[in-house]
């Protein structure tokens, strides 16, 4: 039969946060090319007979080059395989899906995208905090703090980040958060704005680090020293102050 | 037994985009309070014996007041019912979840949140377009074009919307899009920026209306006249120009 490519969102980690469609597609896969941010419990959902290959490409670790991933994906699909490209969170949100869709299309292969719960949504559900709470937030924005060279992206819109009526979610914040916070404050962000780091959102090892924009860099450092691990996300804005973690009434579900 | 409240994301419409957790919670519900934007096919997933009550509160139609929904939800849970508050998309993204979480907490009830695929993600998967395509977008932002009074919110950050390196998703755009586009262009947004309206994303009646920021108001008007129906979402930004709809090579899955 003809091969195909499906980009599938693995969600933030809890395998129960996979969509029914993701499960169906994973269970009919011949090959699963997965990122190092995909939780092992999610990978277990894939068809047992499927070949599973770690291709990395997210997180801070060394990984395959994007061109190599594209070439492997296309080559396997051309051999008639049903190839699933499994990505942490949602492929369409900081998932490098653009390059892979283009590569598959250029090769004349059918491409399907299955959305996933992105890390921000996983964290918000665990914090039980509305990212667009009517009293606090008119705009929700996602940014990455990690450019191709591993540094802070050069063209961040600092005014947009300083807006007191926005909720901001920072993906891949760990190496550059201190600088990002400093520059956002310089652009007018109130340093007392509630900010929280969430490690391994929705996984058993989840850890929440509530602080403020001004104090989170230190709190983050300490949490890592104390063993906080896994994918990290930072959320800030006045809506985040509604999170249970700040009220000291955090319930574990 | 003790009652409980679960806020559950119904996703954009395709019932296969429910998470496994949403299905589990829906199948153990005693009562489901649902919005008018929840697709009937999603509601069918709920436990057959569950009482299903339309409480509205999304879309443009008249609906129950938020205070009445909160009171009903708390009252049912206090009677020992497992109450599911089922919301289109993700409860934490323009879902009024904040008020309901507070009401349940204030009543001493256990609250759980199950995230859902939000409309922007459903639309992006169908358009096969990365919302954060590396060549085009550094920031992804969600705004609502519909304030409490039905008009454009007064405190929109127009500079943030005019940023050429952002992808913007406008929820509830239909009544106010023309004004929003005009003001964003006045703030510096290139009127030739690709923009697309998606009606009923991921549903059988889905309709995509590709245009530009300048021409979408007219195209939208025409699409509605031609029968486009259901929840509408507008996406704009240079990343959106990568959508298959613009290349005239749209495939239906």
TrEMBL record, chains A, B:
Coiled coil: none annotated. Signal peptide: none annotated. Transmembrane segments: none annotated. It comes from the Bacteria. The active site is at 35 (proton acceptor), 57 (proton donor). Residues 5-216 form the Tetrapyrrole methylase domain. Belongs to the precorrin methyltransferase family. This is Uroporphyrinogen-III C-methyltransferase. It comes from Ancylobacter pratisalsi. The lineage of its organism: Bacteria, Pseudomonadati, Pseudomonadota, Alphaproteobacteria, Hyphomicrobiales. The gene is cobA. The chain holds residues 241 to 493 of 507 of the full protein.
């Amino acid at each position: 039969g003809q091969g195909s490519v499906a980009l599938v969102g693995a969600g933030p980690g809890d395998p129960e946060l996979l969509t029914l469609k993701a499960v169906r597609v994973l269970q009919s896969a011949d090959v699963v090319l997965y990122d190092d941010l995909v939780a092992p419990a999610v990978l277990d959902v894939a068809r047992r007979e499927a070949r599973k290959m770690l291709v990395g490409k997210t997180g801070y670790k060394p990984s395959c080059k994007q061109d190599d991933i594209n070439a492997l994906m296309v080559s396997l699909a051309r051999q008639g395989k049903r190839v699933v490209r499994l990505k942490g969170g949602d492929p369409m949100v900081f998932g490098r899906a653009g390059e892979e869709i283009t590569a598959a299309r250029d090769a004349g292969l059918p491409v399907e995208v299955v959305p996933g719960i992105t890390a921000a949504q996983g964290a918000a559900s665990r914090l039980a905090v509305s990212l667009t709470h009517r009293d606090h937030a008119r705009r929700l924005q996602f940014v990455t703090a990690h450019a191709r060279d591993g540094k802070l992206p050069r063209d961040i819109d600092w005014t947009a980040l300083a807006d007191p009526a926005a909720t901001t979610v920072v993906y891949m914040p760990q190496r550059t958060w201190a600088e990002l916070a400093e520059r956002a404050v310089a652009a007018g962000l109130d340093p007392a704005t509630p900010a929280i780091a969430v490690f391994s959102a929705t996984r058993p090892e989840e850890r929440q680090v509530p602080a403020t924009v001004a104090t989170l860099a230190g709190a983050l450092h300490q949490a890592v020293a104390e063993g906080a691990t896994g994918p990290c996300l930072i959320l800030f804005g006045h809506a985040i102050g509604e999170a249970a973690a700040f009220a000291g009434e955090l319930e574990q579900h």
